[in-house]
Amino acid sequence: MKREILIIDDDADLSMIISDMLTDKGFGVTTALNSEDAFNLLKENTYHLILLDINLPDSIGFDVCKELRRVSEVPVIFASARTSETDRITGLDIGGDDYIPKPFSMKELLSRINALLRRTYGFNDTDKIICFGDVLVDTGSRSVTKSGNPVNLSLREFDLLAYLCEHPNTAITKDRLFSDVWGSFSEVAPSTLTVHMRWLREKLEDDPAEPKYLKTVYKVGYILEGVTE
Fold first, then answer.
1. Which of 96, 121, 141, 200 is the most buried (most CB within 10 A)?
2. Global pTM?
3. Beta carbons of 217 and 223 less than 8 angstroms apart
C-alpha cells in the first residue's frame, strides 16, 4: 500500500524537490502552500505523515499542529528555518513527532520519515495479505476475495477494511475511524460509518446480522477479529 505524505510549506521549489524525491521512493505526495489549502485537503483525504513548515503565509505551523491534534494522531515532522531551542521544544510539546531544521539533506529527511513511519505503523517494505475466515485482503493490489471469488468494494469501503486490517483484534473508536479513514476535518454524517460497516458485512460476512469478524464494540466503535497473515 502506497504511503501518502502531505507537505505543507509555502516554499514551492523546496516542496517540489522533496516531492520528487519521495515519489521516486514510492510514496504518494500532496503539497499545500498554506494552511487553508492544507485543511481543505485534510477534509477529503487521509495521510500517513505530514511535513509541516512553521512560517506559513496565512498561519503558524504550530497552530496547524494544535488544530490537527484535536482530531488526529497522524505523525507530524516540523521542517523549519526556525532553529532555536524554544521553537524545537514548542513543536514537540504541542504534538509534533520530530523537528528537522532547514536546510537539511534529502537523505536525512528520508531517514527521519522512514523511522517515524516504522515507529507509528510498523511498516515493512512489503504489502500485506490479510485473511479472516474465507476472506483474503491484498493491500498492495487493493483487491478482496471471498471463497476465491472477487468482491467489489468502493474506494472508501476498501480504505475502511484496510485500516481495520492494519489494526487487527483492536477496538477502534468511531472518532479515530472518521479521522484516519475519511480525513481529519471531513464533514460527513455520523451515520456514514455505520452504513459502510453494514455494506462490508453484507459483502464479507456469512451472516451479516451476526457478524463473526467485523464486530461492533459497544459504546466504542468496531473491531476486526480472527485475522491471520
1. 200
2. 0.72
3. yes
Our measurement of the distance from residue 1's CA atom to the centroid of its chain's CA atoms, rounded to an integer in Å, reads 11
pLDDT in the model for residue 50: 97
Which three cell numbers, joined as nine digits, stand for 51?
511535513
Each residue's pLDDT tens digit, 165-189:
989 999 999 999 988 888 877 778 8
> CA-to-CA distance for 38 and 56, rounded, in angstroms?
11
How does pLDDT run across 70-85, given as a tens digit for each residue? 888 899 999 999 989 9
Instruction: Indicate the SS3 state at residue 207.
Output: coil
pLDDT of amino acid 220: 94
Alpha helices in the chain (DSSP H): 12-24, 35-44, 61-69, 85-93, 106-121, 155-166, 174-177, 191-204
Rounded to an integer, what distance in angstroms lies between the CA atom of residue 201 and that of residue 212? 9
Q: Which residues have a Cβ under 8 Å from the Cβ of 31 and sit 6 or more positions away?
A: 6, 7, 8, 9, 12, 15, 16, 19
Closest to 34 (Cα-Cα) out of 6, 10, 11:
10
Residues of the chain with pLDDT > 90, as a percent, come to 77
| Core vs surface per residue 184-218: b (16+ CB within 10 A) or e | bbbeeeeeebeebbebbbebbbeeeeebebbbeee
Residue-averaged pLDDT of the chain: 92
Residue 90 burial by CB count (10 A; 0-12/13-18/19+): exposed, middle or buried? middle
